[in-house]
Amino acid sequence: MDESQPPGEPPWDELVLVGRVTRPHGLRGHVVLAAETDFAEERFRPGATFRTRVDGHEETLTLASARFQNGRPVVLVDGCERIEDVERLIGCELRVPEQALQPLEPGVYYEHQLVGCRVETVGGDIVGTVVRVQGGAAASLLMIDGSRGEVLVPLVQDICVAIDIDGRRITIAPPDGLLELNEKVRRDRGPRDKGTA
124 FRET partner, CA 20 to 30 A, in 12, 96, 134, 196? Predict the structure, then answer.
């Protein structure tokens, strides 16, 4: 395990989150991961390397072995042979440089590429900034924070008519009433109602 930032590697904040260490598995240093990628089997394989932060120090971790159990990666990290070796990793994020990501087909984007993009209508009205992407590839929604509050916009070509990742901008052609829909729901609930009974 390397305690310094590898030379030529991007800083921590520019790395892409691909997984988290959730808990030990057995007594021989294995851990269960929560995958934050659609390509878990390609990402979590023997020899794969990740950057993590442990107690404020960056380290590079290399996987000695990997398998899947109930759909979750169970991995062994080089140098971790006992449960005591991995307890310090619990809760740590696993990140990789963006250039290490799988290439995507045209018109398909990683979530981190969309988060932070400014959203505006084809008429030039600013809607807000994407703060999260909900759902899977078949039914994704952009969660946008703006002057109207939180707005959900379907990530479909008919509505999201232009996505400029380099320019950090998404242009939408929302159907009538889409942007007002969330505004009406909040008004009906009132300022104190959080949706609980």
Answer: 134
